[in-house]
Amino acid sequence: MQSELNISTITVTPFAGQRPGTSGLRKKTREFMQPGYIETFVQSVFNALRGSVEGDFSQHTLVVGGDGRYYNREAVAKIVSIAAGNEFGRVLVGRGSLLSTPAMSAVIRRRNALGGLILSASHNPGGIDEDFGIKYNIRNGGPAPEAVTERIYEFTQKINHYYWAECPGLELDKEGVHRCEATEVEVIDPLADYSALMAELFDFEALRDFFKRGFRMTFDAMHGATGPYATHILENLLGAERGTVTNGVPLPDFGGHHPDPNLVYAADLVRRMSGDKSPDFGAACDGDGDRNMVLGRDTFVSPGDSLAVIAEHAQQSIRGYCGGLAGIARSMPTSTAADRVAKALGIPIYETPTGWKFFGGLMDAGLCTICGEESFGTGSNHIREKDGFWAVLCWISILCVTGKSVAEVMEEHWERHGRSYFQRHDYEGLELHSATAMLTEVRESLDSLAGNSFAGARVAAADDFTYTDPVDGGVTAKAGIRLLLDDGSRVVFRLSGTGTAGATLRVYLERFSKDYRQDTAAMVAPLATGIRNLLKLQERFGRTEPDVAT
Ligand code: VG1
Ligand code: CO
Prior knowledge:
Elements: E1 8-11, E2 25-28, H1 29-32, H2 37-50, E3 61-66, H3 72-85, E4 90-98, H4 101-110, E5 115-119, E6 131-137, H5 146-158, E7 161-164, E8 176-180, E9 183-188, H6 192-201, H7 204-212, E10 217-220, H8 226-237, E11 245-246, H9 267-272, E12 281-285, E13 292-296, E14 299-301, H10 303-317, E15 328-331, H11 337-345, E16 349-352, H12 357-364, E17 370-373, E18 377-380, H13 388-402, H14 406-417, E19 419-430, H15 432-444, H16 446-449, E20 453-454, E21 457-464, E22 467-468, E23 475-476, E24 481-485, E25 490-495, E26 503-513, H17 520-534, H18 537-541, E27 548-549
Parallel strand pairs: 3-4, 3-5, 4-9, 10-11, 10-12, 15-16, 15-17
Antiparallel strand pairs: 1-7, 2-6, 5-6, 8-9, 12-13, 13-14, 17-18, 19-26, 19-27, 20-21, 21-24, 22-23, 24-25, 25-26
Helix pairs in contact: 2-3, 2-5, 10-11, 10-13
């Protein structure tokens, strides 16, 4: 450290368990609030980076911002001090300490930053007794791949000091430039880069005209980070009527709700989208703005279908994709609807483990353009994160260009490709050791499952998904157990990597049919019962029903 700088070296001992999961380090807020907890993790991120950057941090920019949840501001202020302690050249902070996850990705890419730290536990509730998280995104704007997160974890286990600079008088609620020791701290407009990017991808003029012609929609920001973005783009730039965005002000506790856009937690939106008088289109995003739910009048679009439909219409309906798509990627548990579209378009489909970090390398290599996950995540190579509001603009564009309703777009899609009836069942709060033991047990008996009858069909194959990244050759094993049935149905299950207490078992159920007029729950019910029996969920955990079916 240079002697003229006032930087302190502070001694610490490691905290156990600072291992990033599917999407960053996620824990109870109180755990993050322990003295030194954020400091050790963030310093470990910098330690892991130090060996891999050219020169020192003084030539680099770090971006910081979060979804506005409880402790967001305090965490951002700490990170600025640690970044200044590590002598970053520049730190960009979203005004009000806010940046949605997709906006973070856009800022990193557009401003050539080394990376960024996002403060969020995504769709998990916020508050002192709820959840908090930190995620590191790399130079391409995407979540750090496993090689990087594992290096970070190694450093968290051996850390013994961090660097700290006091930054007195730092005003994070107004745009402006400050200096903190050797570091320039710039507070930026969190909306600017993202809005500019959307204006490049979508034909704002056509969409403005669409609203003028009477298109009506409602958007539920669930008091998460997307509120200001949606209000600015829909109401200010596209001329949607005031009040189109609801719950648009980010709140530390998301208004006491789960900021999770699904049929259970966005029930209010679902209600507003039912009946003849409801708007043409409804949508919601999660706490950090990377997830989305799409609704038409009395119509729910499942995330797997949304991915397939966006891919199907992108070239004709969305300016940014008029050159066509290079390929589509989906996480393994996501329904196979997108596969049929890829086949029809004559482009490749990639199947990856759960988590957006697996898409980044494919997009960097130009192998795929549009990606999606069943967990209400869709996105494209415009950034390296899933992007909830982008999906909303995709759908508005499709409705605008086709002149059809959401229900008509869906029927037309199913008519052409058939329908994947899909549901995910979550069993939450299971005892961690028993849940892990259960998976080990099943894994060991996989070979004997093939040929058995299951839910009125026969198990054609059973395996544990192993992924070899086609770009860097990296192997990810144990990414989810799948039972492939001889009638084309699939059951997949795995343990969640984002939970903060106990274990969550996710069971993914998919059944294909050309008849698209059936009820989803009824179609997948035999699969749900089959897996509950196979895993003996009642005997093991006393569970007869999932906590969430979505
Ligand atoms: C879940 C989803 C996964 C998603 C991840 C992060 O992970 O299943 O598809 O990428 O959350 O989403 P898991 O390991 O709990 O199943 V978000 O919106 O939290 O960034
Ligand atoms: Co999220």
